[in-house]
Amino acid sequence: MDQGIAALLGATVGVVGTVSASAVSGWSSRRQIGVQARVDHAHWRRQARRDAYSAFLAPANETRNALKQAARALIGDVEVEAADRHLHDAHSALGEVQATWAALAVEGPEPVEQAANAVKTALHSMHTTLLAWRDHAEGAPDHNVGFVERHAVEVTKVSERIGAFTTTARAALDEAGATVPVDPGNR
Question: How far apart are CA 144 and CA 173, in angstroms?
Fold first, then answer.
């Protein structure tokens, strides 16, 4: 083989090798960027959900506490003004529960939204019972026994539902943190 052909063949092999290495490097970089983008998106999504769950839980607890204080004001020596104040606070907090539930419903997933809806419903029921109790509070104390019993059941129900919401939300966040969606085309 003559030296010119050998040099040309060597240069061709060098160019093909360089182009091949560049193509592999480019493909690898694109794949790595795609994986990092999915990881970043999953992290952002988990953070948005965590914020939505926390934003719901704070007014839910605030509502529960205001409703408990309203009930205390209705037991024994009835303090209607104090009960009204706490019921008003609970009503305001329920509005925030409703607003944060809407944001949470968008963030999902569905089991978390359902658990939050159960909390919201139980809080509304507790509020309604206390409003009825307040309307009858200054009457004969014997008539309030039914309200006291119903309220006790609702306090337990609200606590259980808040606990279930917290457990469901935590599981959803743990699941979201453990899985990162992979593009099937880049395996």
Answer: 43
